[in-house]
Amino acid sequence: MIRVSVLGAGGRMGTEVVRALKGAQDMQTALLLGPDDDPSSINPSNTDVAVDFTSPDAVLGNTLTLIGQGVHAVIGTTGWTKERLDQVRQALDGHAGLSVFIAPNFAISAVLANRFAAMAARYFESAEVVELHHPDKVDAPSGTALGTASAIAEARRQAGMGPMPDATQQPDPSRGRVVDGVHVHAVRLRGLNAHEEVLMGNPGEQLTIRADSFERVSFMPGVLLAVRRAGSIPGLTVGLDHYLF
């Protein structure tokens, strides 16, 4: 049995993770931590894998603590930057065999949409990303959308493509955030859960790639897969695609 502790166990995603763990025959719930609990209580004597769904402000400290404790980590909390990821890599030095897995999105549909977008990017003159979420989400654009934009940009670089056409000239245009030349737009609307559209265009044609997660249960197969694979790739791994493809 895999002993799994959950940080942020009382939150929206954490509650769903706890429910999924109870339904998994090869896992058992270890510690369930809230925002006021000490993550250093998690250690190899009580936990094999820790799952973090807390907040962008707390997640880096939690991750560094778990590394120091020698516990594999599966992180679903967003808010990661290159500098933060570098801190995690540095902390993992000297911890042979330990793994930290970070997923911008655990939904299989979202991971596949990102993959399809990267495959298609070299064939289209223009590409933009629109992400749509419930208004309780604390970050914008989403980590998933930023990852999709980066994948599109890398595919375009590898294909030797130049900048996308855009004749906008006004001093303060509303064109979303630009990520490596790819515009990313964020919508926050009551009634939504988690959705992403990738729009690609050529003269006379358009391709739309869309992923919709209507309920948080859609993320649980990816979370459980990451827990089962914890330790299989030592060090820092970002993206569920590393376990799917």
Describe this structure in words.
- The chain has 245 residues and is of the alpha/beta class.
- 33% of the residues lie in helices and 27% in strands.
- The protein is built from seven helices and eleven strands.
- It has helices at 12-23, 56-69, 82-92, 108-120, 143-158, 220-229, 241-244, and strands spanning 2-7, 27-33, 49-52, 72-75, 99-102, 126-133, 177-179, 182-188, 194-202, 205-213, 235-238.
- The strands form two sheets. Strands 2-1-3-4-5-11 form a six-stranded parallel beta sheet, with helices on both faces.
- Strand 9 and strand 10 form a beta hairpin.
- The chain is elongated.
- The two termini are 26 Å apart.
- 38% of the residues are buried.
- The model has no long low-confidence stretch (mean pLDDT 96).
